[in-house]
Structure formats: structure tokens, C-alpha cells
Amino acid sequence: MDPLRNSPTTRSLGTSSSSTARPRPLSRRPGLALAGLCVIGAGVGFNIVAAKMRENELAQKKSEASNFYVSVDRSGGGI
Prior knowledge:
Blueprint: H1 8-13, H2 30-61
Keywords: Membrane, Transmembrane, Transmembrane helix
């Protein structure tokens, strides 16, 4: 047995046991957290815009003036 490793002062400086360990804060890597929030926000925003466009197109198709409804090809292709 190594008396230096088993002394109370060196044990307190080492890693803590799992029963007293606190959870890691989310702000350990703030840049990564901010980038993740930006990616999630962009995805949510994209889904909201896509849902609104789909809802508006269905509303136009089912309206009383459905004779004037023309479907728009959003593929980006030419004629």
C-alpha cells in the first residue's frame, strides 16, 4: 500500500465518488450549446414555414374559387 495515495488530503483532491458528484452544467461548452440551439431553431423555423405553405395551398385548393387554383411546381426545374 502506498501511504501517499491513501492519505486523506490526496483522496479529497482526486475525483469525487459517484454519490457526491454533481451533474455537469450545460454551459461547459457555450459555443457548442449556442450552435446546437441555432441548428434546432433553424429546423423548427423551416418546419413552420413549410407547414404554413402547405396549409395555404390546401386552403386555396378547397376554396370556393377552386376553378382558379393552379398548382405551382416548386422543384426549381425549368419548363
